[in-house]
Amino acid sequence: MLLRLLTYAYAVAVVVGMGTQAIAQESGSAETDARIQALELRVQQLEKALAEALGTETAEPPPPAESATTVAQAEPAPNGNNRSDITGQQGAYNYDKAFFGPIGPLTSSDGRFKTFLYGNLQTDLAAYSESGDWEGVFGDEYYIGKGDTDFSGGGKMRRVSFGIASVVEQDWIVFMSYNLADGGEQVDSGLRAAAIVYRGIKPWWLMAGQFGNSVGLESSTFNSFLGMAERPMMSNAFAYAPSAPVVALIASHRGRSTYARFGVFGKNSGVDSDFDEGWGLHGRFLLQPHKERRFSSQIGVSGYWRKPEEEVVGSDHMRSCPEGSMGSGFRFRAFGISAVDGTSLVNTGKFCAVEDYTYVVGEGAVSRGPVSLQGEWGTAQVNTKSSGSYEFSGGYVDVGYFLTGESRNYNPYFGQFWRLKPNNDLGQGGLGAFELRARWQTIDLNDRVAVVDGNVTGVTGGEASGFTVGLNWYFNAFTRAIFNAGRIDVEYPTAVGGRLGTREASVDEYVARVEIFF
After folding, report:
1. Cis peptide before 308 (omega within 30 of 0)
2. Is the dihedral angle over the CA atoms 134, 139, 144, 146 positive or is it negative?
């Protein structure tokens, strides 16, 4: 009997001692809380056995309630990231993984309901210097929607977004956000997101409502985590409203080395129409060989097939549709480095009698140590009912380097780059983090161009390319300043002496942004 008692007592001491040593060695690890819970359970079992051996009974405490935070700590997701990536805090605030900012959630007494507040403010200043022949752009209201004569510099509140999100009964997430900034012709102002997420079928997520469109790496990346102030021209033109959420029903799957997202997408709920709404099938698939926060690589493909909205189209700067013909009213267009002026440097004009249109883009990215590299190339095709098909393309390459030694933070949960925490925050013993960035980009919105009877035919949206350099200054994990400067060169087809020629123009753009996101 005595030997049995000593054996149980020794077992309890060993378990507690080993647990204390393991916790001391791994303090700060994401698995610490799970280890503590497992050790507590084992100690309870041993104490119960010891009591039985003594012939006495001890009251066995009830198992702890499985709150959303407890489950998030104890059950890692298939890709190695636990649910604290989404719900926010796990003990001390995790800058790398937390979806929301550091503002603590409002939590119900039983821990089953949590509500978070978040926001994003971006203030831009921009200046322009143009040269060459821009008459065809500024002289046509369909390019920029106004009778301007040159690029207009100045200031602009790019985004003023506030949102609220709730985690309900562990597996349900409800969120809504609203942008108070005036987006002009951009449809990213007003209601940005309003959706419901269900994540109870591991490793699947189901989402319904209005939210961001994920076609390509840059259009999938949140605005606050972009490497440059704005996305490249090819994303703005082809990715179907990359900064303007659309109504959709989607499913996403997170594997150990893959990410997939696909669904049915409608259009932005803030765009009114008297005609049947356009819709499409969108998808994105990634291979993720390296998924560490400081060492990542991914390669993938995404795209969409869309059936355009039906509406009667009259004429625009490029073509006149037959009276009563059914067309989509849509077009591909893109501005340059800054959105302060908003001028479309390239613009296909509205298409007539469109049957459907597609877009396919390949993407790749790698980040290791202070260096990061990413790029995309995409091709869009418009199939019309009367004049055949048109094809357009574009791409970019981005490179970045941290002067202060940080690494770009990768979030495999969404297949995008994430919040960056400087090694030394500004005002806390350091100057923050400094990152140099450079981008080369190009886009071609010309197709089937020819001169017939002295006039240019086909789609003459223009061909643009340029180089941009940037400096990002991260004051802390939630505040940064962005400085971008670059030149965009544009060529437009034109008829010269009865032959096909080009009209050339260029613009130097300078933009500075201060933003805070929480």
Report:
1. no
2. positive
Cα separation of 44 and 349, whole Å?
72
Instruction: Report CA dihedral (220, 224, 227, 231) to the nearest 10 degrees.
Output: 50
**Sequence-separated (6 or more) residues with CB below 8 Å from residue 103:** 116, 117, 118, 518
Helix or strand holding residue 281 (H, E): strand 279-291
Q: Where are the alpha helices (DSSP H) in 55-140?
A: 68-74, 84-87, 135-138
pLDDT at 354: 86
4: three-class secondary structure by DSSP:
helix
Q: How many Cβ atoms are within 10 Å of 44's Cβ, its own excluded?
A: 14
Closest Cα to residue 331, out of 378, 390, 386, 264?
Answer: 390
Residues 6+ apart with CB under 8 A from 278: 266, 267, 306, 307, 308, 309, 328, 330
Rounded (10°) CA dihedral 181, 182, 184, 190? 80
pLDDT for 193 equals 85
Give the integer Cα–Cα distance in Å for 190 and 197.
21
d(CA 477, CA 418): 10
Classified as helix, coil or strand, 60 is: coil
What backbone phi and psi angles, to 5 degrees, belong to 170? 70, -45
* Residue 300 CB neighbour total at 10 angstroms: 22
Q: Which two tokens stand for residue 131?
A: 């040269």
Query: Distance between terminal CA atoms of the chain?
Result: 61
Mapping DSSP to helix (H, G, I), strand (E, B) and coil, where does residue 247 land? strand
Distance of CA 509 to the CA centre of its chain: 24
pLDDT of residue 182: 72
Q: Which DSSP helix (H) or strand (E) runs through 236?
A: helix 233-238
Two tokens at 306?
């869309």
pLDDT by 10-residue block (mean), the chain, 518 residues: 45 44 43 61 62 48 40 34 45 77 86 92 96 68 48 92 92 92 64 90 94 87 94 92 77 96 83 71 96 92 88 50 55 92 88 89 97 98 89 98 96 92 93 98 96 89 96 97 97 88 93 95
Give CA–CA dist 373/121, Å, rounded: 27
- Quick one: pLDDT at residue 187? 53
CB 67 within 8 A of CB 111: yes
Q: Is 321 helix (H, G, I), strand (E, B) or coil?
A: coil
φ/ψ region of 405 (left if φ > 0, alpha if ψ in -120 to 50, else beta) reads left
**Contact partners, residue 252, CB within 8 Å, separation at least 6:** 204, 205, 207, 259, 260, 261, 262
CA dihedral 104, 108, 113, 114 (to 10 degrees): -10
Do 210 and 421 form a contact (C-beta atoms < 8 A)? no
Which residues are CB-contacts of 52 (< 8 A; sequence separation ≥ 6)?
Answer: none
Other CB atoms closer than 10 Å to residue 12's CB: what's the count? 16
What's the pLDDT score for residue 244?
63
Q: In whole angstroms, how far apart are CA 98 and each of 11, 85, 87, 348, 421?
A: 38, 5, 7, 41, 12
Q: Are 406 and 432 in contact (CB under 8 A)?
A: no
Q: Tell me, what's the pLDDT at 471?
A: 98
